[in-house]
Amino acid sequence: MTNSQLKRVVVTGLGAITPIGNTLTDYWQGLMNGKSGIAEITNFDPSKHACRIAGEVKGFDPQDYLDRKEAKRMDRFAQFGVSASLQALADSKLVINDLNAEQIGVIIGTGVGGIKVLEDQQEVYLNKGPSRCSPFMIPMMIGNMASGLTAINTGAKGPNTCTVTACAAGSNAIGDAFRLVQRGYAKAMICGGTEASVTPLSLAGFASARALSTRNDEPQKASRPFDKDRDGFVMGEGSGILILEELEHALARGATIYGEMVGYAMTCDAYHMTAPVPDGAGATRAMELALKDGGISPEQVTYINAHGTSTAANDVTETKAIKKALGDRAYAIAVSSTKSMTGHLLGGSGGIEAVATLMAIANDRIPPTLNLDNPDPDCDLDYVPYESRPLEIDVALSNSFGFGGHNVTLVFRKYR
């Protein structure tokens, strides 16, 4: 398709269930106030674990959105994804009915899927035998169920799939949904990421890989992207969902527009199972290609919501990549990591971070990076430490990188 044939794509609804707030308003206020959602784990006894902290979602009741029986047949990751989708749909005021259902689709990514159900059913299998395993185990466990159940609960009958690209899954979902609307395969898409992998087995696995912070006595200071004293990332959980819509369709119904999505790119390092390529070449190309896709020059970029995991491997590499992709302009761009407040939601991170990026554009305010007390000398950009900052934002990027070498950049801009 030629550029003149591509549809303009806007964001008309947002939903968020996060460690710092279970609504869009609460999440945004938490970011603006520099609120940390990281604390000692409460959903199970973490005393035997080297890492005992996480960004848990607090006060979430799936029955605020779902029938009690239906909620019981969902893993927590699917509860989050469906609930955030219903939030976003309500925020957009988009009504799905028999006339438009086939033109509205769903893509929700997850890195791990229903691991809590898998762990619980393994205990049942070992202690009570195979005949006692739940008949709902498989549909509760598989990663596509957040997308499938969202369609069931909204009536969306258009394109439906699930991205599973580790910590890039939520951003891949948004990017793939963007392509479908841009090319006319859907009028609107419900898209984003969800994760609920703060479980005993997941925690043990990441800790064994020496990826997690063990600053257990100071949980709110444990996630410290770009800081010299960082010692690993902190797991989080939750979901962030966007409603992407064809511009003409949105204008025809008088929708509120948070911003316009203009670019998307994905690349692969093809280097290592877990480590990024040291020179950041894959991340650099993702940013360069996404900017090219959107017809955006480096001089137009105002803000980058960094992947910013608080690991030695990511923070320096991402900084290198930003400087290579944006040149001298990199030093004039505000960069922040909202993972300093929420922890790392793995496959859900791209969703809540895209929500944060769009709210930053809509409100002309940059979320801060917490705990940047002693900046790493190799991390020398403007990371907006401690406090949010008012700044007129035209174009913003959201970066996500995942195990396997997946790199994704999304480009949003103010709607004009």
Automatic annotation (TrEMBL):
GO cellular component: a single term: cytosol
Biochemical pathway: Lipid metabolism; fatty acid biosynthesis
Transmembrane segments: none
SMART domains, A to Z: PKS_KS
Keywords assigned: Acyltransferase, Fatty acid biosynthesis, Fatty acid metabolism, Lipid biosynthesis, Lipid metabolism, Transferase
Residues of the active site: C167 (for beta-ketoacyl synthase activity)
All copies of domain Ketosynthase family 3 (KS3), residue ranges: 6-414
GO BP: any one term: fatty acid biosynthetic process
Keyword Lipid metabolism set for record: yes
Reactions mediated catalytically: a fatty acyl-[ACP] + malonyl-[ACP] + H(+) = a 3-oxoacyl-[ACP] + holo-[ACP] + CO2; (9Z)-hexadecenoyl-[ACP] + malonyl-[ACP] + H(+) = 3-oxo-(11Z)-octadecenoyl-[ACP] + holo-[ACP] + CO2
InterPro entries per record: 3-oxoacyl-ACP_synth-2, Beta-ketoacyl_synthase, Ketoacyl_synth_AS, Ketoacyl_synth_C, Ketoacyl_synth_N, PKS_Beta-ketoAc_synthase_dom, Thiolase-like
GO terms, molecular function: 3-oxoacyl-[acyl-carrier-protein] synthase activity
Known EC number: 2.3.1.179
Purpose: Involved in the type II fatty acid elongation cycle. Catalyzes the elongation of a wide range of acyl-ACP by the addition of two carbons from malonyl-ACP to an acyl acceptor. Can efficiently catalyze the conversion of palmitoleoyl-ACP (cis-hexadec-9-enoyl-ACP) to cis-vaccenoyl-ACP (cis-octadec-11-enoyl-ACP), an essential step in the thermal regulation of fatty acid composition.
Family the UniProt entry places it in: Belongs to the thiolase-like superfamily. Beta-ketoacyl-ACP synthases family.
PANTHER family reported in the protein's UniProt record: 3-OXOACYL-[ACYL-CARRIER-PROTEIN] SYNTHASE, MITOCHONDRIAL, POLYKETIDE SYNTHASE-RELATED
Identification of the protein by name: 3-oxoacyl-[acyl-carrier-protein] synthase 2
Organism placement in taxonomy: Bacteria, Bacillati, Cyanobacteriota, Cyanophyceae, Oscillatoriophycideae
